[in-house]
Amino acid sequence: MTILVVDDDEGHCELIRRNLRRGGVSNPVVTLHRGEDALHYVRERARQDRSGEPERLLLLLDINMPGGLNGVDVLREIKADPATRKVPVIILTTTDDPREIGRCYDLGCSVYITKPVEAQAFIDAIERLGLFVSIVSLAPVAPAGTP
Amino acid sequence: MMLDGTHQEEMTAGPHSAGGTIFQAVVESAPYAMLLVDDAGEITWVNGEAERLFGYSRTDLTGQPIELLLPDRVRVAHRMLRGAYARDPVPRPMGAGRTLHARRKDGSEFPVEVGLKPVGSAARPSVLAAVTDITLRRRAEADLRHLNKALATANQALRRANAEISRKSEEVESFVYIVSHDLRAPLVNLQGFSRELEFGCARLDQAVAALDLPEAARDQLKTIVAEDILGALRFIGASVAKFDRLINALLTLSRTGTQTYRHDRLDMAAVVAATIDAVRRSTEAEGATIVVDTLPEAFGDATAVGQVVANLVHNALKYADPDRPPRVEIGGAADRQEAHFWVRDNGIGIPAHAFPRLFQVFQRFHPERAPGNGIGLAAVKRIVERLGGRIWAENRDPAGTAFHFTLPCHPPKAQPEC
User: Fold this and answer.
1) Which of B181, B204, B245 has the highest number of chain A CBs within 10 A, making it the mutation to test binding with A?
2) Which of A71, A98, B127, B255 is deepest in the core (most CB within 10 A)?
3) What is the CATH classification number for the domain harbouring A127?
């Protein structure tokens, strides 16, 4: 299971990667900064996975990305395509503003995380998606304060 | 005015009889010009006001055709119309629907109103004309038309300005919203990487502890980590936290402006009870008293009004005077126009210089007293005004503050145009 982080802010991507590692999530993490690249990646993976296991990808998607396709566009495209519709998506927002959250719900995505992404918030979100067992491969628990 | 042949005879014959004298006194003092015109169109008698109005003496006028008193351009037409009137003489105003003009001796013209009444005998028919100068009335009418037009123009300008203001305010709100969001992104990095540095310091500490170093060198390294790096990070952390509060406050405020509010009939006693019950237990444990008086009903949004009350009560408790146990009184009254509520306290009061900016965003007048983001009263004012009310504050004698706000006490009518 690969975790695809899509966020135009490189710092946010790096923080998410570090927090997941520190939280013991050992899945491969791929980061992309543009909506177009994300869509291409997801479609390509879906094409490759057609013969194999269906849910091999988890998308962490920033809802606000300037220029080109933003998070809303990417989510809409993914949900519209039968080949990619089942890819689980967690929306990343910078605020818990009800307008933003409402937008996520409107797009059929009920799971969101407020940035910066803490590992526990990520794990909670995965649990809400009902995908915990199938997705997360936890590394052996490390003492607090270590990677 | 009644005239009959007898009086006319008296007038034309000369006012020598007793009845003629009284009658002449009456018409002489009439506030309008009166002229008697015979069936040939000749003036046979005028009163004093006619002399004054037209600028001719009585002898000048007597025996002259009535057209003498008309502008040149209407003289011919008047002669014909006069003939028509003579054939069907009934009392009536002259020139219905048109503006009539008369002409003075000096040639100047002025607008008039003329009443006509046939008098005299069948043998000597005459017409009594009563002429009023309506220059002033016309001017007043013109002024009124002008004012009405100016008023319509001003109204239109006001509507445009209102539309512009609400557009601008929407622009500002969406600007604030966008800016707040954009500011959050770099802040997340500052927050996140500050924590990364803290993790790094913890690892550095562990690495140093594992090294075989002289005591002095170890202490120096520990000091660098604990004081130089982590000390600096604490300042960064505090600033980031403050930045975060400000941004959240801005977001809250922009949300307050765009939210759609309900206009329900509110049982204010229930709204207030629901709001303060949560805080009552803890505040009363601290020696504070909250008293709720009878409250009138009002129209508004229960959640939003609850926020207003919560904010005012919270402020009242936050700015309590340490020398006396806090006491908060919530009360209200209603008249036919609106419901009026107040939240009074016996706290430290509002400094005089603070009043003009009391409801502005990011204003804090007692920052040493309690933490806050300076958004509470600005948001409260927005809510109250959006619900159709007003809010103000005053200091109480001898101590404390009273916040007042109003809400409609009628259901809202259809939305006004702007």
Assistant:
1) B181
2) A71
3) 3.40.50.2300
Q: Is residue A143 part of a domain?
A: no
Specify the DSSP class assigned to residue B67: G
A 84-113 residues inside an 8 A Cβ radius of B: 94-95, 97-99
CA atoms within 13 A on the CB side of B131: 30
**Which amino acid is residue B298, in one-letter code?**
A
Per-residue pLDDT of chain B (418 residues; tens, 9 = 90+): 444 444 444 444 444 444 567 777 888 888 889 999 998 899 999 999 999 999 999 999 999 999 999 999 988 888 888 888 877 777 878 776 678 999 999 999 999 999 888 887 778 888 999 999 999 999 999 999 999 999 999 999 999 998 888 888 777 777 777 777 778 888 889 988 998 999 999 999 999 989 888 999 999 999 999 999 999 999 998 888 888 888 877 777 777 766 778 888 999 999 998 888 877 777 777 788 899 999 999 999 988 898 899 889 988 888 888 888 999 999 999 998 899 999 999 999 888 888 888 888 767 667 666 666 666 788 889 889 889 999 999 998 888 999 999 999 888 775 443 3
Nearest to A94 among B188, B196, B206 (CB): B188
Q: Is residue A50 part of a domain?
A: yes
Q: What is the ipTM of this complex?
A: 0.74
Q: Please tell me the total count of domains within chain A.
A: 1
- Domain span at residue A103? 2-135
CB distance A116–B188 less than 8 Å? yes
Cβ contact B192–A146 (<8 Å): no
CA distances from B30 to A32, B15, B34, B113, B342 (A): 100, 16, 8, 15, 65
Answer whether A145 touches B (CB < 8 Å). Answer: yes
Q: What are the structural domains of chain B?
A: 5-133 (3.30.450.20), 140-258 (no CATH), 264-408 (3.30.565.10)
Respond yes or no on whether the N-terminal peptide bond of residue B398 is cis (omega within 30° of 0).
Answer: yes
CB contact under 8 A, B199 and A115: no
Query: CB under 8 Å to B161, separation ≥6 — which residues?
Result: none
Residue of B181, B196, B247 lying closest to A64 (CB–CB): B181
- Per CB-CB distance under 8 Å, the chain A contacts of B202 are 145-146
A142: in domain: no
Smallest CA–CA distance, residue A20 to chain B, in Å, is 13
Nearest CB to B184; choose among A11, A95, A98: A95
To test the contact with chain B by mutation, choose from A95, A96, A103, A122 the residue with the greatest count of B C-beta atoms within 10 A, namely: A95
For residue A18, list chain B residues with Cβ-Cβ distance below 8 A: 196
Residue A140 maps to a domain: no
Query: Looking at B253-390, which runs of residues are DSSP E strands?
Result: 264-266, 289-292, 298-300, 327-334, 338-345
